[in-house]
Amino acid sequence: MKRILAASTMLGVVVAGPAWAEIKIATAGPMTGQYASFGAQMKAGAELAVEHINAAGGVNGEQLKLEIGDDACDPKQAVAVANQFAGSGVVLVAGHFCSGSSIPASAVYAEEGIIQISPASTNPVYTDERPGPGIFRMCGRDDQQGEIAGQFIHERFPDKKVAFIHDKTAYGQGLADATMAAYEAAGGKPALYEAYTAGEKDYTALVSKLKAEGVGVLHVGGYHTEAGLIARQMREQGMDTVLMSGDGLTTEEYWAITGESGEGTLMTFSPDPRKNPDAAPLVEQFRAKGVEPEGYVLYTYASVQAWAEAANTAGTTEFDAVVKALNEGTFKTVLGESGFDDKGDVKLPGYVIYEWKAGKYDYLEN
Fold this sequence. Notes:
By secondary structure, this protein is of the alpha/beta class. 50% of the residues are buried. Strand 3, helix 4 and strand 4 form a beta-alpha-beta unit. It has 13 helices and 14 strands. Helix 2 packs parallel to helix 12. The termini are far apart.
């Protein structure tokens, strides 16, 4: 019914005049709150993608209009944002960021016939149990990320005690569990597995427990704010424990929290698209705008790119036709040439190991 009403509304716009030549798309993520640096990444990526697509003639001759949704990485707020997008006639959502937001929001998008391409949600459930055919992701999965991390920890640190902690979120626990499973499959025996509460400022009790256990490697399933505080508080207690985490650390804000305590932090992330020679001109355009295209900036740009290519191929923004084009097509994006598998997962290279040094993250040497 909502889609029929939206269509009727759009018919009225046709009679009214030129506003018909606008296609509404959106991005959604934590635009406010402790993970807002990731929301800013997504907003920057989507805005420049829309600017470039419109300058090139739009999609099927119509201009794109971008809406921004703030879910603050809260599941209930994400559902509210999804319903808001449905009411305003959005046809694509390049979002959300947190898996705990993308998963419940996907049910709304599936019901309303809206295509969702998440640039950043890595929990396998998002596509393994997707509620409809229009749900895709432009990034990798935690089971892929965890396999790389777990094997690496076992091989690189065979004589150290290893602990796994998580923030109880779909992303954080999913990543910690996948990493620990791979570590155990390689023959490792975890010294500790615990949950912590996101949003706190003082983790000294947890750090003291890690110190008492003699933990030499700590894998954190969670985001940069808490991981940064834990890293700093470990150094304050005189610990030289290696902290390792995942793509939730892909923001320079991590170093703003840790300072030199972040030196040597390890993390898993997909190959850095900023290093793709074909992306060099775009990277420079972002930097000229004062935006460092770190983390998920280019993943969000690519999500909009892929949808736009599919819609142009289909000759329409109608849901079924664009889904068919996404399933069958290969797309030239800033991340490289790729398509989607039968689950909606992107066919791109997996994960590599990074190290934080002097305020930046880059591939781990050797």
